[in-house]
Design a protein that fits this description.
By secondary structure, the chain is α+β, with helices and mostly antiparallel strands. It is 23% helix and 24% strand.
Length: 468
Amino acid sequence: MVEVMSNTGVTVYGVIRWTGVPAGKTGEWAGVELDYDVRNCSDGVYGGQRYFTCPVGRALFVPLAKCNPDQRFHSSFARRRPSQKTVDLPPDITSDDSEDDAPPVSESQALSLLEGRMRGIQGHFNSCYLDATLFSLFCSATVLDSSWQKPAGKEEATSQILRKEIVNRLRRKGFVPAESVMSLRKQLGCHTFLTEEKDPEEFISILLQKVLCMPPLLKLRSNMEPCQGAYTFQIILEKEQVARVPTVQQLLDASFLSCDLKFVEAPSFLILQMPRFGKKYKMFPHIIPSTQLDLTDLLYNECFICGQPATSECVQCLQDRKLQPGKIKQYCSVCSTQVHAHPLRQGHCPRALAGQAESTTTGAPASSHTMELFAVLCIHTSHYVSFVKYGPDPHAWLFFDSMADRCGDDPSGYNIPEVRACPQLGDFLSRSEEEVAAADPSCAAEPVRRLLCDSYMFLYQSASAAPP
């Protein structure tokens, strides 16, 4: 992440995509992909030669000396560097040959094992999406620990690299070198995983389906249509359906209502993609994390008022301030008639529910199903980082950046990953939803601001699977 002062005195920001000596120039130059379109900038071509690829108007070529660290990230969240920079050497970590799987990092061990520079997973050449995803999935979560399999063929070698070179190293040593991640990237079946920036959901699908040989995490059904499987769920809704500053719970409920979806069975692992597209567009300027998700209404057809089996569902009642706004409204026939007799609701169009869950047909209340938040992937200007919950304590949060710094600008240089404790997230998320919604992110601590404004993907596991 760099900033460059133009000849007109305007500062522009971006990510270095290429370094070297372009034809006709002397000295080291940098090709920078900017955050936004700038007049007279190219798509990665300079002097008639292509050095990298990006949208038209985003590629700026300047002498490397004109690139300075992006000061937008040099705040109280970042530790101040000493005037004379110290050299961070990669730890001397040998390969983990043990056949025993290392358990997830416990709350009591997390800070001593993981906190600091040269901790976590070392990034290399557009790998931040993959590094942040791996750290989130395997650092302290248990949700995939029962999924290690040894299928025949190429997937077996890939699974062993993942288990021995990445997961076991991370959990036992607290550091995974870039070479180990590159070994995994070479096994993912497409050469673009070695060089190109990808989306986390693409990597997750390959990881779960091809490497761990897992069936789809989610089983979804729309009305009486056949069941559909998925590994992640993309939030889809109209902006007007939820509050100006929505919670993840509200987004999920509204999306299921919009798409007329139900879970066929309770998931043990849920990956939610937020309603944002590309690097720039976000439907909501910030989103409130729901530390706990209640999926009960997305599983069972139970009357919102009396608890009896529901026969209809009303989208228009979702934001009714007199009926607990933001909560899914399902009604039995009696309660639906009474609720929609109100003059303000007579224009509503409740829709019939099909295929009631067996557990509600007896009239007994449906058992609740909740899920716990254990990680959040965030993106800002093409760079992915993650926040990970490492224990039951509300303050047990870590921030991870696989490319927090760099040692050396030449090809022999390397990225410096960093893991930081973020107890302030616990303080913020312990507030009521009303207080969190009213908070000004620009006045919040830097990790809180990034969590609210840059969230890309929320990862949940069943409350019963969460570590004690």
